[in-house]
Amino acid sequence: MAEQDALVALFNAGRLSEGETMARDVIRRYPKAVFGWKALGTVLLAGDRQREALPALQQALELNPRDSECLNSLGKTLQDLVQLDAALDAIEHALRLRPDYGSALINRGNVLVQLGRPDEALVCLDRALALQPDSASAHNDRGHALKALGRLDEALAAYTHAIALKPGFAEAHHNLGSVLRDLGRFEESLAQYGRALDLKPDWPLAKSQYAHCLKRLSFTQDRPEIRARLVQALRESWCRPHEIMVTCVSCIGLNPRIGSALARLGYGETLAAADLFGAAGLVRLADEPLLMSLLEACPIADADLERLLTQIRRALLEAVTLSAAVHRFDAAAQRLLAALARQCHLNDYAWAETSAETAHIEALHGALSLVQHQGAPIAEPYLLALAAYRPLLTLPQPAALLDRDWSEPVRAVVIEQVCEPLQEADDRRTMPRLTTMADPVSTQVRAQYEEHPYPRWTRAGIVTPAPTIAAYIRLQFPKTRLPAPVRQDGNVSILVAGCGTGLHALEVAQRYPEARILAIDLSLTSLAYAQRKTRELGVTNVRYAQADILNLGELDESFDLIESVGVLHHLRDPIAGWKALLAHLHPGGFMSIGLYSELARRAVVRVREQIARDGCQPTASAMRAFRQQLLARRETSDDGHLTQSADFYSLSGCRDLLFHVSEQRFTLPQLADALRELELSLVGFILDQRVMARYAERFPDDPSATNLESWHRFEQEHPQTFAGMYQFWVQKTVTPCS
Predict the structure, then answer these.
(1) How many CA atoms lie within 13 A of 240 on its CB side?
(2) How many C-beta atoms lie closer than 10 Å to residue 614's C-beta?
(3) pLDDT average, residue stretch 458-486
(4) Is residue 490 pLDDT above 70, yes or no?
């Protein structure tokens, strides 16, 4: 009994590691005692180690099947693992033994919400509150039920009450932020997510939601706390960096130096080397953490900021090569030029350059090539100036640059432009090849991505792991009823067909960390990039290989989930490619598909037709020139909004957006025909919650939001609904013979 009291005291004090050690010692000495197993399961559950808690609690119940506390803990564990039917059985068993068990009533209410039965959940939670009116957890969970019922104002009140009862309740602050976000009150939502992060600074979900709320906002007044959080979000990869681009740019624009320079450019002035140095010089932008973090994270997707940075780059080149001002390059100037070099490498050198700049860079390249060949010292500003215009890999014997001593900013540039490409070259040579590559269109598509792998990225966002594929689908589509669940064991296999440079595949791997994932693509260059990033992030459950979807009959594997987003519409015959994938999907398995919308891409089609008429080829210089044409008329052209696309701001992205060698598009009636032909049932579209809310208001008789005729009418009324693409999930029909 003394040991039991001591173990309970450790648990109550939050000393979970010591509690686990003690519980395991109790089990070793008293293997038939319920308490040790129950205590171990409870401690592991409190530490979010549900999979380890499950067998301990099951063993405790083997020893005492009528332990209501253990049944309730088992139910909570199963709920966290999204085994909801089993969770409900365990909790209801506990309630039959102990009808007024408040904690079990709260857990039952939560499970019912997740099962799509919020009305029943609300009754259950009200009963729990009658027993425990001051339970912050019960009020918080009542908010879940009200939110699921669409009663957002009441949910708001419930979460607020929970916080009043327990001010340090991080989860309730997070949930309040979610309701405020759904109500469109993004500033208030951000404050609540921020409070949740203050209380739990390492909580990944709160970081992710904070970032996704940030992308709804832009700022006209400097907010140091927002600026600091943006820097943290970029450096810690709370989301894909480009998702918070607008917010970052709005904050960066509040910097007086940037505001003044942008105003000058707006009046038609140009910047020169004289504008760089001195106490008020633009090289002081190196002391702006948000700008520097953004330059190193993703292509700058803002026309005005690109124009400013292009002029700063030109002025820095002038200072290096014309004005003999290299001696004025202090640490700040070096950091800024290094950040510009990293940015230009990320955007595939998409920025415009004048003929004078081209001549200076060619001369500089020749001079540095000679110095490199001779093994002579290289002044860092000269190397950085070249790296801001041309990859360092174009120098002779580039690997020798890795052996030189550089300052930290220059070292980072050399690693990105020399070391990493050389690693990719090694991976390219050893990449497995699963199918033949004979289709002429596939060959052209492959050539495009060998030259311009897409996208070039540095950081993926936070991905919340899902216990199972079915659990993720239930979260994404709570009102959809699935006729056949995907297999729940640990042998789940996933195919990412058309993985490109690996960003999508890595997000899938993080979402399903126990799954076996095969990621295929046409391009060896893209696959090598993906392999390097996978190794860099320490992800071990993905294997990469070259393959053509149209030849997948040569592959002897089947999968529980196949994801192919933004790929099939580049094939010669998208439906044939879809059928080839479907042949490798288990009965009852799922597919996540992304296809271009004919309606949403009308502007892209117009620009592609213009490019074809003009005979513009997808060379680097031609694409740079075309980008400048489109930027120059962005305020007056019907197609100017294309310059708001993140893809427009890198050469690989611009080529994918406007210069692709093969593009086909779909309408929703065509999609409906394809699903009938392929015997697939629509699970739902992946769309912003505000769009889903508008659809629900427009078509209340389609609660699952799966009626393609209604969606077709909705898209006609809102042509940019699927501006990215139709992104949706389908399930393979299970036939009796299956």
Answers:
(1) 11
(2) 11
(3) 81
(4) no
Please state, in angstroms and rounded to a whole number, the distance separating the CA atoms of residues 273 and 329.
11
Q: Does 115 have pLDDT greater than 50?
A: yes
pLDDT score of 737 more than 50: no
CA distance 140 to 174: 10
- Residue 486 is predicted with a pLDDT of 52
Closest alpha carbon to 244 in 302, 193, 184: 302
Looking at per-residue confidence, does 15 or 700 come out higher? 700
**How far apart, in whole angstroms, are the C-alpha atoms of residue 653 and residue 627?**
12
- Where in 492-620 does DSSP place strands (E)? 493-497, 516-521, 542-546, 559-565, 585-595
pLDDT by residue (tens digit) across 298-312?
999 999 999 999 999
Could you give the CA distance from residue 475 to residue 327 in angstroms, rounded to a whole number? 59
* Closest to 677 (Cα-Cα) out of 560, 549, 579, 550: 579
Helices marked H in 98-223 — which ranges? 102-114, 118-131, 136-148, 152-165, 170-182, 186-199, 204-214
Half-sphere exposure of 346 toward its Cβ, with a 13 Å CA cutoff? 23
Chain-centre distance for alpha carbon 82: 22
Across the chain, what does the average pLDDT equal? 93
Cis amide bond preceding 409, omega within 30? no
Give the CA distances from residue 175 to residues 144, 191, 628, 661, 725, in Å, rounded to whole numbers and listed in that order.
Answer: 8, 12, 45, 46, 30
Give bridge partners of residue 728 from the DSSP assignment: 593, 685
Whether 675 contacts 457, CB under 8 Å: no
Q: What is the mean pLDDT of residues 595-623?
A: 95
Higher pLDDT: 466 or 103? It is 103
**496 vs 330 pLDDT, higher one:** 496
Going by their DSSP bridges, the two strands 542-546 and 726-732 should be labelled as: unpaired
CA nearest 591: which of 471, 730, 470? Answer: 730
What distance separates the 2 farthest-apart alpha carbons in the chain? 87
Torsion angle of C-alpha atoms 422, 425, 427, 428, degrees rounded to 10: 170
The DSSP letter of residue 573 is S
Closest CA to 388 of 321, 474, 484: 321
Who has greater pLDDT, 579 or 325?
Answer: 579
pTM of the model: 0.91
Distance CA(424)–CA(535), nearest Å, equals: 11
Residue 532 tokens read as 């390097």
Of 12 and 415, the one with more pLDDT:
415
With beta carbons less than 8 A apart as the criterion, state whether 50 and 80 touch. yes
Q: Which amino acid is at 233?
A: A
Residue 392 has phi, psi (to 5 degrees) of -65, -20
- In the structure encoding, which two tokens stand for residue 93, read together? 């068993």
Buried b (16+ CB within 10 A) or exposed e, 647-667: bbbbbbbbbbbbbbeebebbe
Which alpha helices (DSSP H) does 253-302 contain, by range?
Answer: 256-266, 289-297
pLDDT band at 690 (very low <50, low <70, confident <90, very high): confident
Q: 554-569: buried (b, 16+ CB within 10 Å) or exposed (e) per residue?
A: ebeeebbbbbbbbbbb
In whole angstroms, what is the distance from residue 459 CA to residue 593 CA? 23
Using only the alpha carbons of the chain, give its radius of gyration. 29
User: Which tokens sit at 728?
Assistant: 């949706």
378 and 404 Cβ atoms separated by less than 8 Å: yes
CB of 668 within 8 A of CB of 712?
yes
Helix (H) or strand (E) holding 605: helix 602-614
At residue 738, the pLDDT reads 42
> 677 φ, ψ to 5°?
-65, -40
Structure confidence at residue 320 (pLDDT)? 87
Give, rounded to a whole angstrom, the gap between the first and last alpha carbons of the chain: 56
Tens digit of each residue's pLDDT (9 = 90 or more) over 273-287? 888 887 788 999 999
